[in-house]
Amino acid sequence: MPPTPSGYDFDCLVFIGRFQPPHLGHLAVIHEALKRARQVIVLVGSAWQARSLRNPWRFEERHDLLRSCFDPEENARLEIAPLLDALYNDDVWVRDVQRKVRDIASPSHGRLPRIGLIGASRGQSSYYLTLFPQWESVSVPLVEGIAATQIRERLFRSPSSAADYLTTGAHHDLPPSVHHALEAFVEQSEAFQRLLEEQHLLNQYRKAWEQAPYPPIFVTVNAVVVQSGHVLLVRRAAAPGKGLLALPGGFINSHERLLDACLRELRERVRLKVPEPVLKGSLRGQRLFDEPHRSWRGRTLAEAFYFALRPEQQLPQLKPAKGGEQARWVALADLEPETLFEDHFFIIQNFLGLPADFGTP
Fold first, then answer.
1. Which among 101, 49, 126 has a CA at the least distance from the CA of 291?
2. CB neighbours (10 Å) of residue 154?
3. What is the distance between the alpha carbons of residues 77 and 87, in angstroms, rounded to a whole number?
4. CA 153 distance to own-chain centroid
5. Taking the alpha carbons of 81, 85, 91, 92 in that order, is the dihedral positive or negative?
6. Do 234 and 274 touch, CB atoms closer than 8 A?
7. Is 348 helix (H, G, I), strand (E, B) or coil?
């Protein structure tokens, strides 16, 4: 292809990833992008998810880690922006990516900018290409033997595993600045201790099912109860997700229909003072939520029911729930993705039609 007036192949190259954490494979892609484009836009996915074993670091932390890997001249050509997931609506996610690139890309002096999408040669780049056919593709050879999943597993398996990984040379898949930051995270962070606790519980959970002939698939229910601009949530009292807000719900019993299980959870878990016939009459929709990574516990399907209660002067009363969980009505304007458990923000978003950037800073 002929070069742009600036001498680069592209005016702008876009790289999308979660960077949990940034590693040398990510840096190889970005360095290639800097060679070939006047401007590089790095979109950091899962930007406002609550901390979890899959998403241990917040957007601000990943932003700083990425910046630390480049010199001032390179950083001047890098734009790093947050990207909110839209787990159950690719069109919403694509629109968000398109808007961010449109708003961030530098002017091209009266002509259409040449924009490309860059990624490693396996997996994610080919998937992205099907969603952005208007952009050219640039494939970078995969750096073998480096995977963010394996890095997270080594860090959170146990304190000794984290120490071995960070001190024995196995961390050579990390840039030096990221390595030093992860050392501080392991040594000083309360978040690290909480994630270790979650990993311990996950190991126990998996051990209980390790003799099963097939990997188990769990079925749960959730209730999205809305009245007068408020949604009913509970604050989780224990790991996983200790301290996070969640939709009322739980696992179904073997003898229950799905709706009956949902009504039981509302009755037992939050002791919602609304008669069952009124709840059934307020049912406005239901949907299965089945994103494969939605739960750390393994393959877990969630059937969610949307109840729209008639507006009243006062919200229905809630009594103390079992298990120490605290139920509360939360104003929709106060919803923040990083305070909600698993994919519960996206379940609410799906039923209420909230915009993709609703609740983000």
1. 49
2. 17
3. 30
4. 17
5. negative
6. no
7. helix
Short-list 326, 330, 279, 276, CA closest to 306: 279
Return the H-helix or E-strand segment holding 33: helix 24-36
> pTM score > 0.70 for this model?
yes
Is residue 82 within 8 Å of 357, Cβ to Cβ? Answer: no
Comparing C-alpha atoms, which of 74, 2, 81 is closest to residue 41? 81
Peptide bond into 21 cis (omega under 30): yes
The first and second tokens of residue 102, run together, are 């449109």
Strand ranges across the sheet with 136-140: 78-82, 37-44, 10-17, 115-120, 136-140
Sequence-separated (6 or more) residues with CB below 8 Å from residue 183: 166
Pairing mode of beta strands 37-44, 10-17: parallel
Q: Quick one: residue 36, left, alpha or beta (phi over 0 = left, psi -120 to 50 = alpha)?
A: alpha
**Residue with tokens 């997270």, as numbered in its chain:** 152
pLDDT, one tens digit per residue, over 253-292 is: 999 999 999 999 999 888 898 999 999 999 999 999 999 9
CB-based contacts of 322, cutoff 8 Å, min separation 6: 268, 269
Task: Detail the DSSP E strand segments found in 25-149.
Answer: 37-44, 78-82, 115-120, 136-140
Supply the pLDDT for residue 318. Answer: 86
